[in-house]
Amino acid sequence: MKNHQITIFDLARELNVSKSTVSRVLTGHPNVHPDTRKRVLDLAEKLDYQRNMIAIQLATQQSRTIGIIIPEILSSYFPYVIAAIQEEARNEGYNVIISQSNESYETEVTNAKVMLDNRVDGVIVSITKETLNFDHLKIFQKKGIPIVFFNRVCNEMVVPKVIVDDYEGAFAAVEHLILSGRKRIAHLSGPPSLAISVKRLNGYLAALKKHHIPADPELIISYDFSKEKIAIYVNHLINLKNPPDAIFAINDPTAIDTIQIIKKNGLSVPEDIAVVGFSDDYISALIEPPLTTVAQPVREIGITAAQLLFDQIKKDSSQWKTPVKVLKTKLIIRKSS
User: Fold this and answer.
1) Which helix (H) or strand (E) holds 39?
2) The HTH lacI-type domain covers which part of the protein (predicted)?
3) pLDDT per residue over 241-255, tens digit each?
4) What is the CATH code for 166-295?
5) pTM for the structure as a whole
6) What is the pLDDT of residues 59-109, one digit of tens each?
7) Is 212 exposed, middle or buried (0-12, 13-18, 19+ CB in 10 A)?
8) Which residues are within 8 A (CB) of 30 and not within 5 positions of it... i.e. 6 or more apart?
9) Which architecture does CATH list for 8-59?
10) Which is the most buried residue in 41, 92, 182, 273, by most CB within 10 A?
11) How is 40-65 classified by DSSP, letter by letter?
C-alpha cells in the first residue's frame, strides 16, 4: 500500500468501510459516527494520505481557496491586512493564494487570471496605482465569483468594499499641524487615479479652509509613489522662496523618506519643518524623530473584508449584498510634529 499514492479506496478497504464514508469524513461532512471519523482520520495521517484537490473541486464545485491581490508588500500595511484575512480563512477552512502586482496594471491582470485558473471561490483586491480599466476584475462578477475591495477600491463595480475615512483622517492630521502653529502646510499627494489620494487631498483642503488658510497650489504635489521622485519634490519644496513649515504626506513611506531628506538638507524635524504621515507603518514609531501619523485599523480591515467575502461565498448570488464598510482612523501624535 505504501508503494503508490494512497487513495480513498485504500483507506476504505483497510478499514472495511465504504468509499463514500471515507469521502464524507475527509470533506468534513457532519453525518459520520465519531468513532468512524476518528478511525479514518487516524489512518489517513498514518499513511500520509494526500487529498486529491482536483477531484474534490470537481465533486463539490468549490476549491476551498480564496485569492488576495495587492499592489505591494514593501510597507507593513498590506502584510498586516493579509495576516488578518488568512486567520479568518483558516477559521472557515479555506486556503489562501496571495499575489503582489508591484504597482503594475499588467501584472494585476495576470494575477487575476491566475486566480481564475485556480478556480478560487472568491477574491479580495486592492488595486494598483496604474489601474484605470477594470475588465479583468469584472470577469469575477460575470462568473459569479465573489469579489471584495479594500483600501484602493474600484468605484465602477457595485461590490462590497472596506475603506477607512480617509477624508476625516487627513483633516485631523492637517488640523493638528495648524493648531501647532503651522501656516504653510505642503501636501505630497498620491496619484489622482486613486480614491484615497482624492479623499486625503480633500481632507487637507477642508482643514485649511476651516482655519482660513488659503490653499497654495505651489505646496500641493501629486506623485506616483516612486521613491526617486520624493527627493526631487521635497528638495523642491525646501528650496522655495517661501518654503513650507510642515508637510502632510499621502502615506508613511513617503513621510519617512521626507524626514530623511529634510535632515540631509541640514534642517530639523519638527523645528524647521513638521512632518505627518498616514497609515501608522511599523517603522514610523522607530525612526528619529518618531512620526506623527494617522493610524488605520489594519486588522479590522482584513477581518471585515474576509467576513464580507465568506458571507457571499455561503449564499446564492441572488442574496448578495454590497455594503461599503467605512472604518475610523486615529491620529497618533509623535515628535515629528
Assistant:
1) helix 34-46
2) 6-60
3) 999 999 999 999 999
4) 3.40.50.2300
5) 0.81
6) 445 668 999 999 998 888 999 999 999 999 999 989 999 999 999 999 999
7) exposed
8) none
9) Orthogonal Bundle (1.10)
10) 273
11) HHHHHHHTT----HHHHHHHHS--SE
